[in-house]
């Protein structure tokens, strides 16, 4: 707990109404969406910042007193990235949630860190523009949190992740200094790209207080093609076949048999439960290109033994299919007291091996797994339902995780595609990074944050 005199000092430069001191209030900010077995330390104070100056003042103060600072958006990351395990100050951006500028001609938007992704998308669409990064929970997660995690989503296959849409950032360093990074132009070849270093740094290097985002033209139209398979290898073959046909779908997503039946159990959506897996393929582009794209995709699906191929163009029905896919996590969460989702990625050619390997590993440890994924990228999310308080189940989970990561690495992949490292994957990082790069990354952390106050004990 901070000394009382120190918390009093916060009152001298922040409005009283922006400080939470009561235990029951602070308690709510100790955890995030990760299901972990860790000791959290309730933050000493939660600060709602309203301006860049507020952020500077808090960091200057925290740096002098060596108090941990944990930035927080909506708290929806899955890896314990904003768990407070050393107490300190939670910087809450809920009140820095304004869209500062929307420039349709330059296709850019300037936003504060607390803006919800769904609001960015909705405003862009009013001018037929598009902000593609779409974590499944984009209706609640913030741009600050997404920048810090470099969030992806279903559309990353065609459109990339958050890192591809950041033109410039304003960040506050650990000592309170405000720095502008990047240029706001589409191309920029001047100096090191420090803005890209901040993207994905999980709040450990600097605090984002403003971002200028790149937008792209909104595709004229889209359809979703769904297809079921009796065999995972055939589904993986279809994914590669579609690309060979030179069709570039916006998404190629996947649900396995367990996830389909779990969704149907809790959120009936009319999915077919007697097949091994389902591919959801969203194709977008000009109206005039759609027939050719659909024909090519359907041909590849048929060649790879797909059944029940359906092409959906009605917007409500399309949304219903995506809602079913997005419901997979919530549905799996109803199977047991806890749900743990993972996030591995392999080259597409190893997709079937990864999915099957994951199932075999979970079976070996008697864990119930529902597998979904953005398989165009080779990214799969095993969702494991269990009781984390049960020692045997927890031990099995830890063994399974380690084997899943080893398999991903063996197949040429890595241990996180889009969720990040946080607390959850810290101890596995040396499976994928060599000693030298870890050493350089730690030196970068020390350069940005010599007192180690920014989101301590995360990643490292
Ligand atoms: C149901 C569900 C589905 C999801 N689906 C996906 C998916 O498809 N793809 C995907 O990539 N992710 C997914 N996620 C994870 C999550 O959406 C992303 O990590 C998310 O974008 C985080 O946003 P947030 O506002 O909740 O950030 P938080 O969880 O609050 O914070 C995340 C990190 O950002 C840091 N941070 C927050 N604000 C700032 C700031 N202003 N400056 C510096 N650091 C900051 C925090 O310290 C923390 O390290 C999903 C999560 C849930 C719960």
Short description:
The protein has helices at 4-13, 23-27, 52-65, 117-126, 143-149, 156-159, 194-198, 232-244, 257-266, 290-303, 315-333, 351-364, 391-410, 435-448, and strands at 19-20, 45-48, 69-72, 89-92, 99-103, 108-111, 129-130, 166-172, 178-182, 207-214, 216-217, 221-229, 251-256, 277-285, 307-312, 338-341, 344-345, 368-374, 379-386. By secondary structure, it is of the alpha+beta class.
Summarize the structure in words.
The structure is a single chain. With 460 residues, the protein is α+β, with helices and mostly antiparallel strands. It folds into 4 domains: 4-92, Uridine Diphospho-n-acetylenolpyruvylglucosamine Reductase, domain 2 (2-Layer Sandwich); 99-217, Uridine Diphospho-n-acetylenolpyruvylglucosamine Reductase, domain 3; 219-327, Alpha-Beta Plaits (2-Layer Sandwich); 335-447, Alpha-Beta Plaits (2-Layer Sandwich), CATH 3.30.70.2740. The chain has 14 helices and 19 strands. The strands form 4 sheets. Strands 12, 13, 14, 15, 16, 17, 18 and 19 form an 8-stranded antiparallel β-sheet that branches. Strand 8 and strand 9 (178-182) form a beta hairpin. Helix 9 crosses helix 11 (315-333). It is globular. The chain starts with a helix and ends in a 12-residue tail after the last helix. The mean pLDDT is 96. Flavin-adenine dinucleotide is lined by residues 32-33, 70-78, 81-82, 93, 113, 135-137, 141-142, 144-146, 148-149, 151-153, 202-203, 207-208, 329, 418-419, 455.
């Amino acid at each position: 707990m901070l000394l009382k005199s120190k918390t009093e000092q916060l009152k001298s430069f922040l409005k009283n109404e922006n400080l939470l001191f009561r235990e029951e209030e602070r308690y709510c900010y100790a955890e995030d969406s990760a299901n972990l077995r860790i000791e959290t330390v309730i933050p000493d104070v939660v600060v709602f910042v309203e301006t860049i100056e507020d952020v500077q003042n808090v960091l200057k103060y925290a740096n002098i007193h060596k108090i941990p600072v944990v930035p927080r958006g909506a708290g929806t990351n899955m890896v314990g990235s904003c768990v407070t395990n050393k107490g300190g100050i939670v910087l809450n951006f809920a009140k820095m949630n304004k869209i500062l500028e929307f420039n349709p001609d330059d296709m850019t938007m300037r936003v504060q860190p607390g803006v919800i992704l769904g609001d960015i998308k909705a405003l862009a669409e009013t001018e037929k523009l598009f902000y593609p990064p779409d974590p499944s929970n984009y209706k609640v997660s913030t741009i600050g949190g997404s920048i810090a995690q470099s969030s992806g989503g279903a559309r990353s296959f065609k459109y990339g992740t958050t890192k591809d849409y950041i033109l410039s950032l304003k960040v506050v360093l650990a000592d309170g200094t405000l720095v502008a990074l990047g240029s706001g132009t589409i191309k920029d070849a001047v100096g090191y790209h420090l803005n890209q270093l901040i993207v994905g740094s999980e709040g450990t290097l600097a605090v984002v207080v403003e971002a200028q985002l790149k937008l792209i033209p909104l595709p004229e139209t889209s359809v979703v093609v769904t297809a079921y398979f009796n065999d995972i290898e055939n589904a993986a073959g279809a994914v590669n076949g579609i690309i060979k046909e030179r069709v570039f779908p916006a998404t190629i997503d996947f649900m396995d048999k367990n996830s389909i039946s779990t969704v149907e159990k809790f959120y009936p959506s009319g999915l077919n439960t007697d097949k091994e897996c389902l591919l959801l393929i969203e194709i977008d582009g000009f109206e005039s290109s759609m027939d050719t794209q659909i024909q090519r995709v359907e041909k590849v699906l048929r060649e790879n033994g797909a059944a029940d191929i359906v092409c959906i163009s009605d917007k409500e029905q399309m949304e219903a299919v995506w809602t079913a896919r997005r419901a997979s996590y919530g549905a799996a969460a109803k199977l047991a007291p806890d749900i743990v989702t993972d996030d591995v990625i392999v080259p597409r050619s190893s997709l079937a091996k990864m999915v099957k390997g994951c199932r075999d590993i979970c079976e070996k440890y008697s864990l119930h797994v529902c597998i979904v994924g953005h398989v165009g990228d080779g990214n799969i999310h095993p969702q494991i339902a269990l009781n984390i308080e049960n020692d045997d189940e927890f031990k099995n989970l830890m063994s399974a995780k380690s084997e899943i990561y080893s398999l991903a690495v063996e197949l040429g992949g890595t241990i996180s595609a889009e969720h990040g490292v946080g607390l959850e994957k810290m101890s596995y990082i040396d499976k994928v990074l060599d000693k030298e790069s870890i050493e350089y990354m730690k030196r970068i952390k020390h350069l940005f944050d010599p007192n180690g106050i920014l989101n301590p004990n995360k990643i490292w």
